[in-house]
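I hope you will forgive my troubling you with a question about protein structure. The full record is reproduced below for your convenience:

——
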Amino acid sequence: MHEALNIRRWHNYFVAARDLSHILLANIGLLKQPDHNAMYDRLRAYIELLWDVPRKIRIVGSEHVSRDVPTVFASNHIKLDDPILLGYAIHVATDGRHSSYMMRSDFFGRKWYMKTRLLDLDVLAARLGAILVDRDNPRPGQLRPFIRLLCGCGAFVMFPTGTRTRTGKLRDYYGEETLGQVAFFLAAAGDKTGSRVEAVPCARTFNPVTRVSAIVFGEPLTLKEFAARSDGALDRKELHRAFNTHLIECIGRLVEVNVPHLLCSLLLRHAETEPTLSPSAATDAISELARDLRAGHGLRLDPDLDKDVAGAVRRCLSYLARLEAVRVRGDRIEIDRERLGVGGKDGESLKKINPILFLANQISDLDDVVAKVEAKARDLE
């Protein structure tokens, strides 16, 4: 088995090198551009090579992903490579479906070496499925390619929050204009074709300690079925706003709760009254929280949440210590309370400057989890 995996890995290296060489030579006119549809299918092999699949990526809820229904995949956005991994997960879940995704037209233009004659990554991304939009000069015409795609039974990935989260919260960019986009696409394509058009909520949870990602697909939603539940009480604008608010809530419920989430939430609440905590008390509290959450319903939990909790807490504390968010001295965790009050400036991410808050914020929309953590923090006072 191990030998077969090694052979497959080296084959993927060879294919990736061959395709990259072909692209570079085509860009300077020595070869024709390769078949990008075929290359899209081979992207699966590249991703499995670079992201160490399946050890580092889990796909959950594949049964909710249709192969031939026009679909908008609406996801949270926590890391730069989210579009790549979501496209990979859709391809795996449907055994081959291609999906496009929204991308700002100058995404790679901020680095000169990413836009050269030899290799222009914006152009390459467009050839592999990205639909480029100018976020600095938005125009209605930029939306037509997405509507045409849905009218042709296609699919694309978009992030209702507009851009990557800087605080860890799902609703960083919660606003009417941004949220209206998903419902707009469903309505526009549905009106043109008269067929079913779905929005599939999905969420990526990244555990920075284990570096494992979970990509979870939720049950599909349609604007028509949502409108039927409102009994015609909402006008079109209100319906779109309500639908997108519901969609955001569905995405939030798909985040997988893991040990770093619980530990950081616990440290954040505990630090309000005490700056120190013993590792054993933290481990016991996380173990009890894991048992309580397992007994509940409707939550997405990391399969390893209640396995070797002591080891998971220890590794998470080491991660936080490397980022200087805590100090572990003997049997005491010293929480840097001053650091907990630091906020990002000019869109700066909290991921490194305030990692405890960044991780705690990722489950801040899960009211039942937050309530249990707060109760446990009070018990530790």
About this structure: The chain has a mean pLDDT of 87. The chain has two domains: 56-252, 259-379. Strands lie at 57-60, 71-75, 100-104, 130-133, 155-158, 198-207, 212-217, 276-277, 326-329, 332-335. Residues 259-379 form one domain.
